[in-house]
Write a structure and sequence with these properties.
By secondary structure, the protein is an all-alpha fold. It has helices at 4-24, 29-40, 43-49, 54-74, 86-110, 115-126, 130-140, 146-177, 182-211, 217-237, 242-259, 266-293, 297-302, 304-328, 333-343, 349-359, 365-404. It is globular.
């Protein structure tokens, strides 16, 4: 039997190599990381490498999910809703809700899937991968452009919208999926809210001050990690869900640092940077490998037309929602069209939701495989088109400026 350390080494090394190859050919790294899972999922490799190690590997992958949502929470600034946010809010609402609602009704009415399964599919179609979009912006040096600012701000709002969508999903899942009555669910949610209030007022500020006594990034990282593990565990215990717990923990830590005068504001960046390194450098690549490991290619061939339909809904509705929002705010069709392709990629949060839904028994392996392939196809299609259009847009803009001058 291959040791657990060798399994982690093989998985991480293959994810890195294929991720770099993907980047070199103009695709996001997540495609290479998913492909690493596909390679390791070949029966002869899977049976030899992962024999006796799948449980440990799944634990690391799930920890990666929690830290991914924690990082999203840390990067989510609630204050964005208070200024210059009309267009990003509209973009987020249209490009999230349109594919989610249409996807839900299409699979519910035409494929006869259950309400819970249709809800998972709809949410997965509506969630965009901000990390993939940021990677493209960084590569093209467009982070500070108007296009980049719109993508980032709408992505930040997307995180909030997605938080509510996921919260609704888990609430419905707990009511109907676990056989719990609505009274108990509401009571558990109420208890969780009270716990969060206590954490925000006392626990988090005291903890951050305690772990900052050494003035060490290591100590601050330890404190931040303990907080997310505790809050996520409480959220899971109360049936709210690990993902919600992780994101709420990140939002609370950020808001506490921004509001507490005794805590230096740069600590938020220090904590966020530490979480980003351990997450995106180690655990999240393993999560994407685990996603690929759970894909059943025989079911993909059986459901290929279903995957094709999901991909069409995801792309056209996200594109359409973005263009509509931009036009309603007196923007141009071209700007909305380019922005739509930039927001289109799927591949982080929606895969985390799908993975959790699979492990909870809400969706089948066939549906899970379809959602993974949909995310992969939307990203493969959208990334090169966005890069081509944004480069051309930048060239035309610069040429126009030179002409004016």
């Amino acid at each position: 039997m291959v040791s657990a350390l060798i399994v982690v080494f093989i998985s991480l090394a293959l994810a890195y190599v294929l991720g770099e190859i993907s980047r070199k050919i103009g695709l996001p790294r997540v495609i290479g990381q998913l492909s690493a899972g596909f390679v390791l999922n070949i029966p002869i490799i899977r049976n030899y490498v992962f024999a006796g190690n799948l449980e440990f590997f799944s634990f690391l992958a799930n920890l990666g999910i929690v830290l991914l949502f924690y990082y999203i929470g840390l990067e989510t600034n609630i204050r964005v809703f208070t200024k210059n946010i009309k267009l990003p809010v509209m973009i987020s609402l249209f490009n999230t809700l349109l594919p989610a609602i249409i996807g839900f009704f299409v699979v519910r009415l035409f494929f006869g899937l259950s309400t819970l399964t249709s809800l998972v599919v709809g949410i997965s179609l509506g969630i965009s991968a901000l990390t993939v979009s940021l990677d493209m912006l960084e590569e093209l040096k467009l982070l500070k452009s108007r296009l980049g600012r719109l993508m980032i701000s709408s992505g930040a709002v997307d995180d909030i919208v997605e938080l509510f969508l996921i919260a609704i999903f888990f609430s419905i899942f707990n009511v109907f999926g676990n056989g719990n009555n609505i009274t108990k669910i509401l009571l558990d949610i109420g208890i969780f809210i009270m716990i969060i209030a206590v954490f925000r007022i006392w626990v988090i500020p005291l903890s951050l001050k305690l772990f900052d006594r050494e003035k060490s990034s290591t100590a601050r990282f330890t404190g931040a990690l303990l907080l997310v593990l505790l809050i996520a565990s409480l959220a899971e215990f109360l049936g709210v869900g690990l993902l919600i717990g992780g994101m709420v923990a990140g939002i609370l830590v950020r808001q506490t640092i921004l509001k507490e005068k005794t805590i230096p504001s740069w600590e938020e960046h220090d904590i966020s940077k530490s979480i980003h390194i351990i997450s995106f450098g180690f655990l999240i690549p393993l999560f994407f490998v685990s996603v690929g490991l759970n894909v059943d290619f025989s079911s993909f061939l059986q459901e290929i037309w279903f995957v094709f339909l999901l991909t069409i809904i995801a792309i056209t509705c996200t594109m359409g929602g973005t263009v509509i929002a931009v036009l309603m705010n007196r923007g141009t069709f071209r700007e909305g069209f380019i922005l739509g392709w930039g927001i289109n990629p799927k591949g982080d949060v929606n895969l985390a939701v799908a993975a959790l839904a699979l492990s909870s028994g809400v969706i089948t392996k066939n549906i899970y495989t379809s959602l993974v392939m949909m995310a992969m196809f939307t990203t493969i299609i959208s990334a090169p088109i966005f890069k081509f259009l944004s480069v051309k847009h930048t060239y035309d803009r610069d040429k126009k400026k030179k002409g004016v001058l």
